[in-house]
Structures are given as C-alpha cells and as structure tokens.
Amino acid sequence: MEDIAMHFCLTGQYTPQALNSIMDNPTVSRYEAAKNLIEAAGGKLISMYSTATDGPGVLVIFDVPDPSAAPAISGVVLSTGAMHNAKLTRLWTPDEIVQVRKKASELRGVYKPPGK
C-alpha cells in the first residue's frame, strides 16, 4: 500500500526566552523534543536544521498521516512561547504533484475568469 503521509515544513525563530533556556542547557537536544512531539501525533521527523537568516531558528521537515496533525504540532510549539514567526508549509512529493497536475488538467476548462 502506498504511504499516505503528508510532508510538512515548519520554520520559525526561537524567542528570547527559548534562546536563554538553550544557552543555559546547550547540550539538551531540541531534535529529541521535536521527534517526541511529532511521533506523539502519529508522524515521523524527517530532518531538522538550525537556521540563522532571520535570527536563531529552526527548520523541521516531517510527515504526518493526518493533515490536521501538522497545524496542531505547530500550535503546541507556539503555545509554549518557544518560537515565533512560524510558517507551516505543505510539501508535495514528485508523485503527488503529478496527481495535482492531472487534476488541474481535468478542471481547467471548467473555470471562467471574470469577463469571459
């Protein structure tokens, strides 16, 4: 059976409070915290990277079988005050995007733009 998990990317910056906690405990794994939360939602952590472009932050890629789990995960993290400027993005695999293109091809003759 084909894997029905959906891929998501969550990015954001750590808040000053979170950065202070990280500096107080620099060896505590944020990866494990993310992995535990995603697995509790029935998902799988694919990868996690630190970012510095807009301030110290994080980029997490994960799969979840239930699309409602992704915003729930994001909401839990944000509710703790650990992160801000969060962005949750649905990612599409090459096989998934082919299905999207097929559906668009089927539908393109149905939509009439304004003035047509």
Largest sheet: 4 strands, antiparallel
Q: Estimate the mean pLDDT confidence.
A: 93
Q: Name the helicity range.
A: 25-40%
Give the quaternary arrangement of the chains.
single chain
Number of helices: 4
Poorly predicted ranges? none
Coarse shape = elongated
Proportion of residues in β-strands: 25-35%
Number of strands: 4
Q: How would you describe what is shown here?
A:
It is a single chain. It is built from four helices and four strands. The protein has a four-stranded antiparallel sheet. A hairpin with a 5-residue loop joins strand 2 and strand 3. 14% of the residues are buried. The model has no long low-confidence stretch (mean pLDDT 93).
SSE topology:
Blueprint lengths: L5 E9 L1 H9 L5 H11 L3 E8 L5 E8 L4 H11 L3 E9 L2 H14 L9
Antiparallel strand pairs: 1-3, 1-4, 2-3
How do you describe this structure in short?
The chain has 116 residues and is α+β, with helices and mostly antiparallel strands.
Key terms:
alpha+beta; about 120 residues; 4 helices
